[in-house]
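Sample pair:
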Amino acid sequence: RASDAIVTKAGPGTIAEASICGLPCMLSSYLPGQEAGNVPYVEENGFGTYSGDPTVIAETVSSWLETPDKLEMMQKAALEAARPAATLDIAKDIAEYLFERKGISS
């Protein structure tokens, strides 16, 4: 592993990959509307926070790295929030829906 945490905008793909890797997320920006809901998701699941202020970002990430227990707690929270099989689950749900709609049993 090459990183202990990630600083990123609140893109869903990046957050998903970070959580699968157990990386705490320092969110620095988001697109209004489509990414706004990702900020509370990360914060409420305990694996990151948001600030658009570079000084706050640096202080926050530094505090995580200087507090191994906090960092470990956030890494575990990220792994608990991860859904590595989400893409397959979505494809399976779509296939089941289509089969049901066509009257085909699986």
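DSSP finds five helices and three strands in the chain.
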